[in-house]
Amino acid sequence: xxxxxxxDGRSAGEPxxxxxxxxxxxxxxxxxxxxxxxxxxxxxxALVGASGSGKTTTGLALLGEFPAGARVTGxxxxxxxxxxxxxxxxxxAVLNPARRVSAxxxxxxxxxxxxxxxxARRAAARExxxxxxxxxxxxxxxxxxxxxxxxLSGGQQQRVVLAQALLLGARVVVADEPTTGQDALTxxxxxxxxxxxxxxxxxxxxxxxDLDVVRALADEIHxxxxxxxxxxxxxxxxxxxxxxxWTRELLRSRxxxxxxxxxxxxxxxxxxxxxxxxxxxxxxxxxxxxxxxxxxxxxxxxxAAAVPVLxxxxxIARHRDGSRRGAAVAVRASELALYAGQCLAVVGRSGSGKTTxxxCLAGLHRDHDGEVLxxxxxxxxxxxxxxxxxxxxxQYVFQDARAAFDEHRPVLSQVARTAVRLRGADPGxxxxxxxxxxxxxxxxxxxxRRRPARLSGGELQRAALARALLAQPRVLLCDxxxxxxxxxxxxxxLDVLTALLDGDDGLSLxxxxxxxxxxxxxxxxxxxxxxxxxxxGPTHRILTAPRHPFTASLTAAAAPRGRATGPG
Amino acid sequence: xxxxxxRSFVARRLLLGAAQTVAVVLLVFALTEALPGDAAIAxxxxxxxxxxVAAIREALLLDRPVLERLxxxxxxxxxxxFGTSLASGRPVSRYIADGFGPTLLLAALTxxxxxxxxxxxxxxxxxxxxxxVDRLVSGLTLAVYAVPEFALGVLLVTVFALRLGWLPPTAxxxxxxxxxxPAALVLPVLVLLSRPVCSLxxxxxxxxxxxxxxxxxxxxxxxxxPGARVRYAHALPNALAPAAQQLxxxxxxxxxxxxxxxxxxxxxxxxxxxxxAVAERDVPVVQGLxxxxxxxxxxxxxxxxxxxxxxxxxxxxxx
Lengths: 568, 319
Description:
The complex is a heterodimer of chains A (568) and B (319).
Chain A: H1 3-7, E1 17-26, E2 29-39, E3 44-48, H2 55-62, E4 70-78, E5 84-87, H3 102-112, H4 118-135, H5 141-145, H6 154-167, E6 172-176, H7 184-199, E7 203-208, H8 211-217, E8 220-225, E9 228-234, H9 235-240, H10 245-252, H11 275-281, E10 310-320, E11 327-338, E12 343-347, H12 354-362, E13 368-374, E14 377-378, H13 388-393, E15 394-397, H14 411-423, H15 427-440, H16 445-448, H17 457-469, E16 475-479, H18 487-502, E17 508-513, H19 516-519, E18 524-529, E19 532-538, H20 539-544, H21 549-562
Parallel strand pairs in A: 3-7, 3-8, 5-6, 6-7, 12-17, 12-18, 15-16, 16-17
Antiparallel strand pairs in A: 1-2, 1-4, 8-9, 10-11, 10-13, 13-14, 18-19
Helix pairs in contact in A: 3-4, 4-6, 7-21, 14-15, 14-17
Chain B: H1 3-34, H2 39-44, H3 50-59, H4 66-78, H5 92-127, H6 132-145, H7 149-163, H8 183-212, H9 215-222, H10 227-255, H11 259-265, H12 270-279, H13 283-311
């Protein structure tokens, strides 16, 4: 654990926090073992690793927090015993929904002005709060303090949480997955924010599996796996010359944009059924034309040749606003088509209406005009009015796989239930089929007989996919199913999706995502901004030569960290 | 939701409430009409001589068509006139005013004890979740909740009034000025308190367990906010919204005259008035009470919804 000290040539002053040989054990299971790190002032120290590698446990150790019932050995030292700030993955979760933003801030400030005479305390506390908000780049503190957390944007919430840490007088800030699930523009804003904090002399400890962010920020990298630090060093060195096998795998698993015609793609992707391969093999069993022209890579499916599986016409979806008579238009899609065996990515920032669009297709959002056609026959707007075969034909996989499973029943029985409910299969056959499908997605039988709590997020997402597949759907709607997963797990899920497209059952995918790297596996991309489809076309064209300014801004925001120095 | 949104919400709810009250009054009127017998028969007493009954009916104007009587009464109500009792000829508003005093007193005393006990025990149990205190509070509240009011009332009267003789068994002889005889109030208030306290404690406990385990409570503790302040200033507001709704239902239940308890302790409140009026087929009194109860229910529930909206601002968006 001494190695990284020597590699850091710059002098950065005394470490503000230090962990030495930390070992955390819960119920006989070792979560973190022999971990050591130093947080230096003005530097960003990154802990990188897949989910479950012990990053968060290590990070929370700096705050003096350990899992319940943990046996802890080793040493955690924070300079002057000072407080440590914490910026969690979901800032909204640590903001009290029933209190105004000012509540916790004033409580923190009040403790600092105890020595003042009583009448002066309130004004002094308020002044400190406003200063902290200004330091966290929230200039309009006065109005902000009166708001409730849900009235703030995601970015403002994050800055409020940061302001709490600054107000506390913390010199060390632990940022836990600050960019997970964020779109490219938000990500770059978070990066700027954290860089500014480090520039002011704070020690930032960044816990992340998002390699783009780590690349943009980190001075020092510790790669974690299964509770141990397998490699440490200056960011530059780890990036360019990874020494440990696991680091290399982590770096390699980053999907890069498909340079469809160039041979210099990452070598492991070629065999695994990238979209172009799927395109080239064609799928003659779907539709009336067995031998369509197959030069579709640039154009997407030739429209004249086949009837789309799913087609959206003049769709206008609204959100009712309880108090007003009118309703806000959430999505406007005049024409959107999905062909058999194809994958359509719907890309946009959070709040752009992606999920609403998918919910319209699935019959979960009734309040819309226009038509959704399945094999040229209109689908009823509401799920309740759809026939069983229509229900089976369009299946939805949700972002939060854990919330999509009943925690009290084994995964297997929940997966098998789809076949019983939607296809009338008998329970025995359904279970056998479920086991086969789950095994195909890489989930062994003994694993899926457990309850959801004992599966990881990635495993549960696979199970959710299997559950949807048991309905033998024509169209699978995947709503941000990889956000929140680490890069390795995400790559695995994307591989599963491309393999599904390659299968011979003519399945079509709608991939809702904010992540351009994820969208890259699709054949076609539709870009949503503020409820409007601003651009759609073949993936390669959209990602490399966007025509609409918004698409260009998305690809530009992803670019500096997305592709510039891909390993290999 | 903005301020104007809240105002339009309140306005819509008041309109809806008015419609609901009218529906309740019509229903009550129809049901009282459907009952066998009427005020004339009740007044005729032990000798229901047909001629005598017909004479009384004519004197009370009961021989007019149903709709006409309803129309007259409704027209009077528009001027604030609740009509006159068929049984005694006294104005209905007097009945309501007389009965309201004792009922309001009982309700106020009950709520004054209910709120601190309910929230205090709920927070206490949540703080020691799974511990001895929690198991004791949870077990006890469940047990008490399972006992109906009349059974508990009879039990308390038997033990404290008849066996021990500490408290008067009923409020007979004290008139409507019960405040002058606080001893007569102890048992009714205890009985009224018993079940609402239990449901409130359990609701507050459940909400507080969730709130105390939440990331925002952990975050407040992490940043050095003292434990009591985390519990009462940060966690409790999140547990309040369902409790406020429950509290409104309880107050409503108390103000509309808890018939069983008032009858048991012979408290001359609204419940007793209602019971007598139904027995005498005194339609104007029953209708007057239906109006009062309807308005109370609408206003209290609206108030609870507004409070709940303040406490859970996110939920308001869909209201």
